[in-house]
């Protein structure tokens, strides 16, 4: 039996299973790891053996701020609101007699200016002229009767004298025609009264302007039959206008009336232009205890709103129903500090630079809050310094520096920037 195992050739080994190739692949994977480990060890050794960096101490930097001194002064309360222009005198013009309108004043249209006494409408006077003539005739007859009766009384007096009778009281009055004479006198007085009434009626056919006014309503035209219930037109006085000002009840206490009433500056940038204004005066303030709503109506007055008294006036004209912006100068507070409202922080805190040049949170008493300013009546002393710079992350007690102290590096505030979320915001 032949040994086949010794004589058979061995199959060649595949490259994938070659021992040399397997060792080479393992080295390729392991080598980067070894290099990295060596680098880490070297770095650690260098860190431990290298020179150590000295720790530098950092002192807090002073904050650069701007300040203003506290001045205790007198300031007037300033209130801002809107106002509606209203007529001080407004009349619905009605006739006092009935009839047909025979004429209307030329150019009588809404917006026309009329003077006191101007004839605006004429009602047909014919019937009233006839009535006057009739009443005049009645008076003439009554007067003639009185004259006749006076003559008869004189005759009766002479006759009584001839009788040599001695009568007194009522008997004598009857003999001398006293009752007849008094009746004749009464008839004359009645006729005179009726004549005066007729003349008044005739005069009323001419409808005149009761005062200087502006026409508000389209007037009735010629040929219209009118009665005492008819409205011929509406007029408004132009010597002065009222302005209704809407203010919250809490502001009423700052306003004065009477001879020293609070002055009001009126503006209308849209119609008048920027910087143009008219002045008026507060004439009526409702009692504060009557406040039943969020706003109360304060009445101001503008004299000669259409500039009719002074032709050379450069003041803008004020027209009815217009809306004006009003700035009211109210009562004066003494010994207060006026600051921009942005400087007032939450809980009525103001940033103050102490004598030691450190930041101090100062609680203050606010007397009045305006739209862009506040008046402080307590908490600040004359000469103290209020910080005007915007401070990011303020800490009470931190050191402060000022623009004239620039010899050392400082941490600068940014006055022009708005308050950040870290800074207490201005109270609204």
Break the fold down into its secondary structure elements and pairings.
Layout lengths: L3 H4 L11 H31 L13 E2 L2 E3 L3 E15 L2 E4 L5 E6 L8 E2 L4 E5 L2 H38 L5 H7 L2 H26 L2 E3 L4 E3 L9 E2 L6 E5 L2 E8 L15 E5 L1 H4 L4 E8 L11 E8 L19 E18 L8 E5 L5 E5 L1 E5 L3 E6 L6 E3 L12 E2 L9 E2 L16
Parallel strand pairs: 1-22, 1-23
Antiparallel strand pairs: 2-21, 3-12, 3-16, 4-11, 5-7, 5-10, 6-9, 7-8, 9-11, 12-15, 13-14, 13-16, 14-15, 16-20, 17-18, 17-21, 19-20
Helix pairs in contact: 3-5
What does it look like?
The structure is a single chain. By secondary structure, the protein is of the alpha+beta class. It folds into 4 domains: 64-73 and 335-412, Beta Barrel (conserved putative lor/sdh protein from methanococcus maripaludis s2 fold), CATH 2.40.420.20; 78-88 and 238-333, Elongation Factor Tu (Ef-tu), domain 3 (Beta Barrel); 93-124 and 205-237, OB fold (Dihydrolipoamide Acetyltransferase, E2P), CATH 2.40.50.100; 125-203. The chain is built from 6 helices and 23 strands. It has helices spanning 4-7, 19-49, 126-163, 169-175, 178-203, 269-272, and strands at 63-64, 67-69, 73-87, 90-93, 99-104, 113-114, 119-123, 206-208, 213-215, 225-226, 233-237, 240-247, 263-267, 277-284, 296-303, 323-340, 349-353, 359-363, 365-369, 373-378, 385-387, 400-401, 411-412. The strands form 5 sheets. Strands 3-12-15-14-13-16 form a 6-stranded antiparallel β-barrel. Strands 2-21-17-18 form a 4-stranded antiparallel sheet, with no helix packed on it. A hairpin with a 3-residue loop joins strand 19 (365-369) and strand 20 (373-378). The longest helix has 38 residues, at 126-163. Residues 1-17 and 407-428 have low confidence and may be disordered.
């Amino acid at each position: 039996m032949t040994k086949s195992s010794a004589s058979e050739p061995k199959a060649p080994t595949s490259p994938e299973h070659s021992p040399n190739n397997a060792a080479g692949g393992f080295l390729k994977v392991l080598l980067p790891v070894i290099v990295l480990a060596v680098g880490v060890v070297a770095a650690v050794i260098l860190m431990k053996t290298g020179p150590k960096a000295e720790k530098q101490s950092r002192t807090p930097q002073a904050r650069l701020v701007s300040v203003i001194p506290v001045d205790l002064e007198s300031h007037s309360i300033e209130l801002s609101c809107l106002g509606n222009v209203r007529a001080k005198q407004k009349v619905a013009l009605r006739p006092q007699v009935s009839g047909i309108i025979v004429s209307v004043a030329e150019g009588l249209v809404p917006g026309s200016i009329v003077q006191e006494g101007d004839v605006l409408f004429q009602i047909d006077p014919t019937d009233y002229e006839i009535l006057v003539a009739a009443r005049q005739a009645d008076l003439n007859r009554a007067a003639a009767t009185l004259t006749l009766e006076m003559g008869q009384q004189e005759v009766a007096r002479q006759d009584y004298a001839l009788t040599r009778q001695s009568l007194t009281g009522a008997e004598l009055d009857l003999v001398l025609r006293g009752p007849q004479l008094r009746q004749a006198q009464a008839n004359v007085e009645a006729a005179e009264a009726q004549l005066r009434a007729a003349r008044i009626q005739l005069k009323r056919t001419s409808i005149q302007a009761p005062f200087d006014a502006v026409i508000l309503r389209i007037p009735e035209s010629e040929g219209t039959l009118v009665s005492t219930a008819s409205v011929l037109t509406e007029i408004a006085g132009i010597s002065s206008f009222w302005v209704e000002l809407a203010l919250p009840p809490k502001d009423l206490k700052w306003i004065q009336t009477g001879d020293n009433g609070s002055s009001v500056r009126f503006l209308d940038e849209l119609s008048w232009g920027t910087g143009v204004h008219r002045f008026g005066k507060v004439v009526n303030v409702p009692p504060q205890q009557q406040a039943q709503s969020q706003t109360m109506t304060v009445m101001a007055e503008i004299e000669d709103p259409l500039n009719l008294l002074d032709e050379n006036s450069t003041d803008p004209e004020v027209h009815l129903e217009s809306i004006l912006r009003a700035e009211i100068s109210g009562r004066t507070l003494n010994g207060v500090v006026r600051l921009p409202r942005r400087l007032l922080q939450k809980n009525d805190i103001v940033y103050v630079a102490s004598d030691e040049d450190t930041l101090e949170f100062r609680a203050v008493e606010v007397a009045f809050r305006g739209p862009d300013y506040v008046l402080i009546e307590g908490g600040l002393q004359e000469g103290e310094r209020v910080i005007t710079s915007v401070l990011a992350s303020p800490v009470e007690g931190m050191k402060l520096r000022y623009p004239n102290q620039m010899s050392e590096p400082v941490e600068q505030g940014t006055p022009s920037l708005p308050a950040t979320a870290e800074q207490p915001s201005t109270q609204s």
